[in-house]
Amino acid sequence: MLLPINGRWLLPINGRWLLPINGRWLLPIHGEVARSAGGATAGSRREVENRLLSSVPLVTSPRTSVSAVVPAYNSELSLPQLVSRLEPVLDAAATDYELLIVDDGSRDGTWSVIESLARDHKWVRGVHLMRNYGQHNAVLCGIRLARHDVIVTLDDDLQHPPEEIPKLLEKLSDDKDVVYGPPAQETHGLWRDLASQVTKIALQSAMGAPIARQAGPFRAFRTRIRDAFAGFDGPYVSIDVLLTWGTTRFASVAVRHEPRTLGKSNYTFRKLVVHAVNMITGFSTLPLQLSSLIGFSLTIVGIAALLFVLIRYLIVGGGVPG
User: Fold this and answer.
1) Per-residue pLDDT tens over the stretch 15-33
2) What CA–CA distance (Å, rounded) separates 145 from 70?
3) For burial by CB atoms within 10 Å, which of 173, 187, 255, 260 has the most?
4) DSSP β-bridge partners for residue 19
5) How far is CA 168 from the centre of its chain?
6) Could you tell me if 200 and 215 are in contact, meaning their C-beta atoms sit under 8 angstroms apart?
7) Contact 42/16 with Cβ under 8 angstroms?
8) Per-residue model confidence (pLDDT) at position 226
């Protein structure tokens, strides 16, 4: 039985009532408050609803199953910490979960650490790539192996705090398919910030969506989106561009990012610029548009020169000098 109150419906759960407010279900502390609404008149229903709202705690959206995907490169020191911090977070936020660690051709003992973690934790799985294919390729590998309803991607260096994952999942429940977690405050150097801005401009050109300015490796999205790029086998991979093939419902939520304490970043100024160029040439029509514009401009110049020569010949006569 559903009880209508001011256009909303109360849902009975084990003798108590849930009230949907702003996309969430509210659970009354006192079940009798909700049950008394059964005999409420139209004039008193607002009062009943207000009493419900004032006496109930928020019940978070229904939990879902989560696959966390982490590309790893020379991260033997950070992975044990990452796993220990991920476990309680996923245990609280998901009905079922797994961690896919993709070793992207590491040169240290990363794969041995992954094997050890997989033996000690049944929810951890490892993938060993024979050489370094790049972060986006490693992430794509993990995405294709994910088993659960939602995929969360994060880096291996602990700059993306696992404790911030629930923020992404909560935002994902608001009729969105992809949620990015940009840092509340950027802490990179001048050249790195410049390269990042160039990359985001290129990404916006490739994605064709304003959300590109908020895009980053810390993201959560519905696993079903991968069906849109299941057949993709191009030489260059951009996860963010591929996600636009499956949905237009993007969102972002600012999260806390932590400074890197172990090792150094694998992304240099040069790599970021190359990444931007690859996005423009591989996924954007901008090079084609630029080539067309140059060709059209040269054609106009050629026609203008031809007209000049013809008009001069007709007026002045004689041959053209030179």
Assistant:
1) 444 444 444 444 443 343 3
2) 12
3) 255
4) 26
5) 9
6) yes
7) no
8) 97
Give the C-alpha distances (Å, rounded to integers) separating 49 from 42, 55, 318: 11, 10, 95
Which amino acid, residue 265? S
Q: Where are the alpha helices (DSSP H) in the chain?
A: 31-35, 45-54, 79-93, 110-120, 135-145, 165-172, 190-207, 239-244, 269-283, 286-315
Name the 3-class secondary structure at 258.
coil
| Residues 133 and 139 sit within 8 Å (Cβ to Cβ) | no
Structure token pair of residue 244: 């636009």
Distances (CA, A) of 247 to 156, 162, 173: 27, 25, 15
pLDDT by residue (tens digit) across 74-109?
A: 999 999 999 999 999 999 999 999 999 999 999 999
Kindly report the pTM of this predicted structure: 0.65
**DSSP β-ladder status, 64-72 and 94-104:** parallel
* pLDDT tens sequence across 128-140: 999 999 899 999 9
What's the alpha-carbon Rg for the chain, to the nearest Å?
28
Residue 41 Ramachandran class (φ > 0 left, ψ -120 to 50 alpha, else beta): beta
Crossing angle between the packed helical segments 165-172 and 79-93, to the nearest 10 degrees: 40
